[in-house]
Amino acid sequence: MTLKITERLIMTPGPTMVDPRVLQAASNPILGQFDPEFTKIMNENMEFIRRAFQTKNKWSFPVDGTSRAGLEAVINSIVAHGDKVFIPRIGRFGNLAVELATRAGGEIYTLDGEWGQVLSQEKIIEKMNEIKPKVVIFVHGETSTGRLQPMDKIGAAAKKIGAFTVVDAVASFMGVNIPVDDWELDAVIGGAQKSLSAPSGITPLTFNDRFAQEISKRKRVEAGVATKDSAKADDFITSNYLDLTQLMDYWSPARLNHHTESTILNYALHEALELILNEEGLENRFENQKKQQTILKNSLRQLGLKIFGDEKNEMPNMVAVEIPSNVDGEKVRSVLLNEYGVEISSSFGPMAGKIWRIGLMGYVAQKHYVLRFLSIFSQVLEQNGAVLNIKEALEYANNAYKK
């Protein structure tokens, strides 16, 4: 084999390091997409996704493609030309939602919050009731700023006015509790390459019957597989590959041929979900994410660094840190990566050059990785002009792990 990949300690908000057991699962032999052994795995993945999202939704399956494919599949399927779409924005990925809904033909309305803060649910609901949109799209885990947007009241409020909720939970999935049914959310998109710690390229999502009935009004089945009874809506979903109504047929017992399913990515998804659901346990996963984030965050504060943003509403699987004024943030990132094999992220828009984003997602949220990162990061910072309390920070971290 000529391909050689350098080992890294990936401390970004995605992609993340992958459990070796997940990589091993992905190395299994290819099966045909309708092989009974593989369709059994498909059915098990659907049940795992239901459990992960804490839902009874029949329609819980993965889309082949990165998380953006999952987002686009859901938004393209529910937003038709001229539909009112309301999008609260608190960072870069709120802007992505605007872009996707605009391309789908939506009439866009926004409510903007300051980057590093969240919007109150009351303010969102008030604006939503004023606009009366067909669709409300919001980002749960906004990794550009490290904020976690509260959303436990929005689903029920949206239903009262007949609106459909679409939630971008790409970065929060498997890192924080998302009880889809309790929060009355219509469609939620997760991510593989974040706290699930699986390879990018497959996206778990879920949507309820109410949502399924609405998008089925736009169903169109291509002539190659259509029957005389197949739907042929005039206002059809414009994407063929990302048409949820055809994917519903593909993931149902009908197994209507749509595309060639990625068998190895389904193996990886199966292993990653099973490790969390059946070995670690959801609550243990969420508790560990928060524990590791708290220790790292407080250790960085002990170093003398300032934590960015509203800490009452922060993502439990990453830390946003302000870059000291006398430090070249990009130089530090370059040294970390090229000399120590450690990767962290910068940010976007108004936060570009102002904060580092340090991920603690899934597999990397372990004591030995946190301590290794903290030791290397503090030394590199000191070598690049930062005045730090390295001894105090390392002592704090070691003592925190003894409790």
Explained architecture:
- The chain has 403 residues and is of the alpha/beta class.
- The protein folds into 2 domains: 19-277, Type I PLP-dependent aspartate aminotransferase-like (Major domain) (Aspartate Aminotransferase, domain 2), CATH 3.40.640.10; 282-402, Aspartate Aminotransferase, domain 1, CATH 3.90.1150.
- It contains 13 helices and 13 strands.
- Helix 3 (67-78) crosses helix 4.
Features:
Aspartate Aminotransferase, domain 1, alpha/beta, seven-stranded mixed β-sheet, 2 domains, two-stranded parallel sheet, about 400 residues, about 40% helix, Aspartate Aminotransferase, domain 2, 13 strands, single chain, 13 helices
Put the structure in a nutshell.
With 403 residues, the chain is of the alpha/beta class. Helices cover 41% and strands 14% of the residues. It has 2 domains: 259 residues, Type I PLP-dependent aspartate aminotransferase-like (Major domain) (Aspartate Aminotransferase, domain 2); 121 residues, Alpha-Beta Complex (Aspartate Aminotransferase, domain 1).
